Amino acid sequence: MKRIPTLETERLVLRPFGPDDAAEVQRLAGDRSIAATTLAIPHPYVDGMARDWISKHQSYFDQGKGVTFAISRKTDGSLLGAMSLMAMEAAHQAELGYWVGRSYWDQGYCTEAGEAILHYAFTQLGLVRVHCHHFARNPASGRVMRKLGMQHEGTRRRHVKKWDKFEDVELYGILQEDWKKAAKKGSPKVERQSASASLRRDKKSSANKKVEP
After folding, report:
1. How many CA atoms lie within 13 A of 37 on its CB side?
2. Of 15, 76, 163, 186, which is most buried with the most CB atoms under 10 A?
3. What's the domain range around 145?
4. Over the stretch 156-204, which tens digit does the pLDDT of each residue have?
């Protein structure tokens, strides 16, 4: 069984979730403001939901359907949120999904994590496209997508239903070729990516360097 990798950036460690994370996931995702900006997170977020969600990550990864990372802070190990590649089609595409606890908003964590995930998607998974969406009423998420180099690809009006209300959805996407062009110009930047022998790089050649796919 191949384990979910661990990725590192300047401030963050993106790692697999474990059973011990369940209580903090419930606390963070249980905030109504988090559920309000996502399609899949329920509210209230009751006991057992987090543990059940975490228990499915490895099998999802084993089946090649996607991968979910815990976003944790290097300095103190605090769990900040989650970021996933979902509905993955091998050698083709995946959907980027994420949430970050309310107290960690507006600190650049989501963008930093997203840069590492795109690096992993395009260099390790060999995807040619990553796409993402957000509710039209949540423009902050759109700003994250644009910072990641994603292009706005359209609006789907009244496309999904959240809490008995139909929502407009904004669509974004990025191609591997466009990501490579941006990477050569110095963005996104990933300090180091590791977790298994296949992902490790020589520290002298990779630490503090800009991405060169």
Report:
1. 18
2. 15
3. 6-193
4. 999 999 898 999 999 999 999 999 998 887 654 444 343 333 344 333 3
* Euclidean distance between CA atoms 136 and 125, whole angstroms: 30
Statement: the pTM of the whole predicted model exceeds 0.90: no
Whether residue 211 is contained in a domain is answered as no
Residue 73 buriedness (CB in 10 A; 0-12 / 13-18 / 19+): middle
Evaluate whether 94 touches 127 at the Cβ level (below 8 Å). Answer: yes
Pseudo-torsion of CA 95, 144, 147, 211, nearest 10°? Answer: -60
The tokens for 208 are: 């503090």
Q: What angle do CA 183, 177, 38 make, to 5 degrees?
A: 80
From CA 119, how far away is CA 190, in angstroms rounded? 8
Instruction: Give the total number of structural domains in the chain.
Output: 1
- Here the CATH number for the domain that contains residue 61 is 3.40.630.30
pLDDT at 119: 97
Q: What is the pLDDT of residues 23-42, one digit of tens each?
A: 999 999 999 999 999 988 99
> In this structure, are residues 82 and 70 in contact, taking their beta carbons and an 8 Å threshold?
yes
